[in-house]
Amino acid sequence: MDIIKHCLLILLLWCDVSFTGLIDVSDVTQTPLLWVIEGQSATMNCSHNKDHSHDQMYWYRQLPEEGMKQIVFTTAYSDHQYESGFSADKFPATKKDALTGSLTVERLLFNDSGVYFCAVSEHRDTGD
Ligand SMILES: *[C@@H]1O[C@H](CO)[C@@H](O)[C@H](O)[C@H]1NC(C)=O
Ligand SMILES: *[C@@H]1O[C@H](CO)[C@@H](O)[C@H](O)[C@H]1NC(C)=O
User: pLDDT tens-digit profile of 42-91?
Assistant: First the structure.
């Protein structure tokens, strides 16, 4: 089916899982599901209703047959930090306030299909 071949499935999980530790994805809401045409871009929104100290946002993706990889770390008050293999050109992110953020995937290729996650964590000055 051609239509299927030329569409990308970008699955965004509605996270309702709590990890203990630095990263906590409970009370985080994401765009649940996006179907996009190859070559276009897809923007995913993420928001949470924790307090304003949870102002750090991480974006991850999991492609079929791959583990979860971090794309970028964002805050409203510092430059985004991209992991190697990921660039601001392909994955522009926004973070304007403590509670929301977005990730765009530009020039989508079929192999960008996968599950994209966001997670938030609390700002800490202790630097662990
Ligand atoms: C994400 O948020 C922007 C700005 O509020 C909105 O225009 C866009 O439609 C949202 N995208 C999705 C996939 O919900
Ligand atoms: C997807 O395909 C493009 C073009 O063939 C390639 O440059 C890119 O590295 C691939 N990405 C992944 C995650 O395999």
Answer: 888 888 888 888 889 999 998 888 888 999 999 999 999 999 999 999 99
- Given ligand 1 and candidates 30, 45, 95, 96, which is best to mutate, with the most ligand atoms within 8 Å of its CB? 45
Q: For residue 23, with 0-12 CB atoms within 10 Å meaning exposed, 13-18 middle and 19 or more buried, which class applies?
A: middle
CATH architecture of 7-121: Sandwich (2.60)
Whether the pLDDT of residue 18 is over 50: the answer is: no
Could you tell me if the CB of 68 is within 6 A of ligand 2? no
